[in-house]
Amino acid sequence: MTGSIEQGTSRTRGSSHILQFLVRLPRSMGDVWPALATPAGLAGWLTAADPFEPRLGGHVALRDLGRGRITAWDVDRVVEYTLEDGGRIRFHLEREGEDRSVLRFTTEFQDDEESEPRWRARFERLIEILESARDSAGHPR
Q: What is the distance between the alpha carbons of residues 91 and 105, in angstroms, rounded to a whole number?
């Protein structure tokens, strides 16, 4: 079974736009976590992250998204990046069976550059990377 991206939801609160997705991933939480919470993992599908201090309150700079701090950090489950421009990116992983996981994603942003199609394309890339890793590890699809 491959990954899938369920229809995103979008709403506006004041000047902020909030976008949410539910993404079903073909790997366990432990396998997905590095893609969401390490510089090498983020660079593979989202953007370069430097500096990156992997802890609550740590500094982070996401090249294409902005600079800020890590405002939630629950290893293998939740990471949230709050950016200086008021934006927020939150990844919340949940287990789905033995070797799959579900990503509940929320982003809050001020401008129109971040959009549902843009995030959908990013998640499609993440799924491709995770499926490739699964195939190279010799696991059936």
A: 5
Q: What is the mean pLDDT of residues 122-135?
A: 89
Tell me the residue type at 56.
Answer: L
pLDDT digits (tens, 9 = 90+) for 62-102: 998 999 999 999 999 999 999 998 899 999 999 998 899 99
Q: Which domain holds residue 106?
A: 4-75+94-136
Q: How far is CA 50 from the centre of its chain?
A: 16
Tokens linked to 90: 């939150």
The DSSP-derived string for the chain is: ---EEPPPEEEEETTEEEEEEEEEESS-HHHHHHHHHSHHHHHHHT--EEEE--STT-EEEETTTEEEEEEEEETTTEEEEEETTS-EEEEEEEEETTTEEEEEEEEEESSSSS-HHHHHHHHHHHHHHHHHHHHHTT---
Does residue 87 form part of some domain? no
Structure token digits, residue 40: 């090498």
The answer for residues whose C-beta is within 8 angstroms of residue 128's C-beta and 6 or more apart is none
Position 125 in a domain: yes
